[in-house]
Amino acid sequence: MAAYVLRRLLLMIPTLLGIMLLNFVIVQAAPGGPIDQVLARFEGLSTQASTRLESGGGDTAGGGGESRGALGVPAEFIERLETQFGFDEPAHERFLGMLADYATFDLGESFFRGEKVTTLMLERLPVSISLGLWTTLLVYLVSIPLGIRKALRHGTRFDVWTSGLVIVGYAIPGFLFAILLIVLFAGGSYWEVFPLRGLTSPDFADLSPWGKVKDYFWHITLPVVASAIGSFATLTMLTKNSFLDEIHKQYVLTARAKGAGDRRVLYGHVFRNAMLIIIAGLPSALVAIFFTGSLLIEVIFSLNGLGLLGFEAVMQRDYPVIFGTLYLYTLIGLILKLISDLTYVWVDPRIDFETRES
């Protein structure tokens, strides 16, 4: 197993490099780079200045020197921007330099925020962890017992009705369900039961410890429910089908023939085998929920998480933030995938990835 883990760790290096290279090429080829973003803002200010001058709404110092500077972009200014952003170097040198910095987890500094990328991510991380952790916990606590129950009562009215409910929930987009929750329970048109935005109240620091806990869960309830609604169906049906497949296998019939009760058969034999496929999907589910699946929810509920940070970076062409978050997300995803394989072996020692590879 040690040799298998070592090979997987070594394989992460070319995988990570390939993903970073592909995205570097795509982002560099996309129009509207950081310099274009700065010039667009500069031209916007120029247009406002010209409008004020034409309307006589303002005077400029130096006999109109400011207006002339506002209406044109000096070449020296563009050269300084290229030097500041590192675009005075060839693309391959910038890529290799970026990889060298990332090897020491130096993710650079944001072009437009004036802060290190790690600082920005650490500031937003608690929000994404809060949302992702409680969403994952809620989904698994509901979907796995429900899926087992549906497998045991396959074809009954309970199975049909619950399948309809989870499929309807899956069909409703998370952001649309979030708006519905706001309308119903956040003072939109009906009841003002939950707050509209943020994770804490303005007076959070002055609350008692128990008051802080209540305030936190009061704020997180609607975002978590909105994030989880679309995940119930997938995990519930996956659990049901996995258990159904195991229940009809020969070893289950043998155990029942020997007089084992349904509960012993279910949790002593079926559960371990049926949970393997669910464990396999946990890493991708965690990455999706924690880092990429909450963008619209964060926007709707005004939550400054990692999803919103990544979206803003793409819109602004803030390359250090784009590539820094991509690097960490990819690395975490690869590590979680390895952990998933190791969990396979822990759950069922009969699985031997090393033998299969050889």
Automatic annotation (TrEMBL):
InterPro entries: MetI-like, MetI-like_sf
Membrane topology label: Multi-pass membrane protein
UniProt entry tagged with the keyword Cell inner membrane: yes
Homology family: Belongs to the binding-protein-dependent transport system permease family.
Protein name as catalogued: Inner membrane ABC transporter permease protein YejB
Gene: yejB
Protein's GO biological process: microcin transport; transmembrane transport
Entry-linked Pfam families: BPD_transp_1
UniProt GO cellular component terms: plasma membrane
Membrane-spanning residues: 127-148, 160-186, 216-239, 274-301, 321-347
Keyword Amino-acid biosynthesis: no
Protein localization: Cell inner membrane; Cell membrane
Main subcellular localisation: membrane
Residue ranges of domain ABC transmembrane type-1 in the record: 125-340
Function: Probably part of a binding-protein-dependent transport system. Probably responsible for the translocation of the substrate across the membrane.
Highest rank taxon of the organism: Bacteria
Listed PANTHER family: INNER MEMBRANE ABC TRANSPORTER, INNER MEMBRANE ABC TRANSPORTER PERMEASE PROTEIN YEJB
Keywords: Cell inner membrane, Cell membrane, Membrane, Transmembrane, Transmembrane helix, Transport
